[in-house]
Description:
The chain is of the alpha+beta class. It has one helix spanning 54-70, and strands at residues 2-6, 17-25, 31-39, 44-51, 74-79. The protein contains one helix and five strands, in the order E-E-E-E-H-E. It has a five-stranded antiparallel sheet with strand order 4-3-2-1-5, covered by helices on one side. A hairpin with a 5-residue loop joins strand 2 (17-25) and strand 3.
Amino acid sequence: MRIYMQTMPAAGAEAPRYVQITLEQDLLGGWTLYRESGTQGGKATLKRDVYLERDAALAAFEKARDAQIKKGFKVMFSQGQESAHGR
Length: 87
């Protein structure tokens, strides 16, 4: 499951910031949550967390998504579970 979010660019301002949150199951049944963020066309940061259970991984995914929405990021693309974007 993946969700891509970004801030709305102000007129004549710098490039918009983005966040991409991805949740993937590994070959051993664990779950990895990737959180990539940065400026469009600029440097990015990638963080990774590993979870043993699906429910804990989904809760972390939703918490990360909700935190970014509160910061003003808008969902641009969502792939995977129907309720991934919370609407």
